[in-house]
Amino acid sequence: MNLxxxxxxxxxxSAGIGRAYALALAGEGATVVAAARRLGGGEGESRDxxxxxxxxxxxxxxxxxxxxxxCDMEVEADIVRLVDQTVATFGHIDVLVNNAAxxxxxxxxxxxxxxWDRVMRTNVRGPYIAIRQTAPHMxxxxxxxxxxxxxxxxxxxxxxxxxxxxxxxxxxxxLNRLSYFMAAELKPHGIAVNCLSPGVVLxxxxxxxxxxxxxxxxxxxxxxxxxxxxxxxLARQTAETLTGQFxxxxxxQKTWP
Length: 257
Fold this sequence. Notes:
- By secondary structure, this protein is of the alpha/beta class.
- The protein has a single domain (7-251), classed as NAD(P)-binding Rossmann-like Domain (Rossmann fold, 3-Layer(aba) Sandwich).
- The protein has 8 helices and 7 strands; from the N terminus they run E-H-E-H-E-H-E-H-E-H-E-H-H-H-E.
- The chain has helices at 16-27, 52-58, 76-90, 113-141, 166-186, 204-209, 213-216, 224-235, and strands at 7-11, 31-36, 65-70, 95-98, 144-149, 191-197, 246-248.
- Strands 3-2-1-4-5-6-7 form a 7-stranded parallel sheet, with helices on both faces.
- Helix 1 (16-27) crosses helix 8, helix 3 packs parallel to helix 4 (113-141) and helix 4 packs parallel to helix 5 (166-186).
- The two termini are 15 Å apart.
- The model has no long low-confidence stretch (mean pLDDT 93).
C-alpha cells in the first residue's frame, strides 16, 4: 500500500514515540490525524513543547499533513468522536496506530485499584474501542492496516526482567492477545493487524520511569528516522502480505520482513 494520500490515525502523538510515528507517516505523504489529550499551543507554552500544536508546526514542510485532534483514550466518547470526525473530514481511514499508553511502574504488591484500572483503560480498552470504531470503515474498503504498539514485557517469556512493571506488562500482554484475535477476525476483510515493539527508546516517558536510562547509552533516539521505517513497512501491509505478527523494531531488516 502506497502511503501517499492515505489517511492515518496515530494516538498518543504529541510526544515521544507517537510523535516520531506521526512525522514518519506524514513524511511519506500520508494525512495524519494526530491524537492526544491536549492540543497545546496556548499562551505561555514554549515553542518546542511536546504538544499537538508544535507537532503540526513541525510537520509543515513534509509531503503529507498532520491534523491535531484532542482525545483522551480513557474516554469512549472521545475515541468515537476521533474516528467519526476523521471519516467525516477525509472519507476513510487506511492506517490506525494504537500508540497511546501509560508507562506507570508500581511496587508489585502495592498497586492501587484506581491505578491498575487507569493503565488497563488506556493500554487495552482504548485500543479495543479504536479498533471497534475504525474496523467497519476499513471493512467497507476491504483494506487497511492496524498497528498496535506493544512492548517486550508483554510477551509470555520476556527477555529481561522489568522491575515494578507488572501492570504495564499485563496491559501489553492483553494488547498482544487483542491483536491476535483481531488479526483473525479482520483477515477475511483484507485488513492487517500487527504488533510492533519499539524496544528501548530514549523517550520522555522512559526517562521519567527510569532516570538511569540516560546514562546507560543503550536507548535508541526517539526520531522518525530511527523509529519510522518498521512502522511504515507495517502501515503498507494488507491481510494477504503480513498480519497477526509480533515484531520488534531492532529486528527490522534482520529477521523481518
